Structure of Transposase:
Amino acid sequence: MPKEKYCTSEKLAILGEIASGEIGVKDAAKKYGITKTTLAKWRRRYKVYGYEGLERRTHNRSYSAELKFQAVKDYLEGGLSQYQVIDKYKIASRTQLSHWIKQYNHHSSLTAYSGGAKAMTKGRSTTWQERIDIVHYCLAHQHDYRKTAVKIR
């Protein structure tokens, strides 16, 4: 992972310059060589998480299935924007929420993170006919790859 360009205290100082009116967002982006989107993300994270929101994360956050479902429901019912939802539930990013929405819309279950289940493992040799049967099984079960993998073991 590349080294972050700015440490937490530097990010806070840049946000402070903007908040005090010393510099505008556009000028700050140009001056510090970052995008306006990055500045907006820093502002949002600082507002929701405080100083910790500007720190570099070394591990992924974990969310319960219930939280994922409620966040998706809040967005899809039209009451909140994606940014409002990620702030309300303290979700790491809009991209994460978008992924859950896509899963929900494809009728996949929203499950809690289970510690990195391995999808790809060293498999056994299969014949051409077995491969065809596996594909047919997978297609017949709405592309449920885990169920298919368990079935063929």
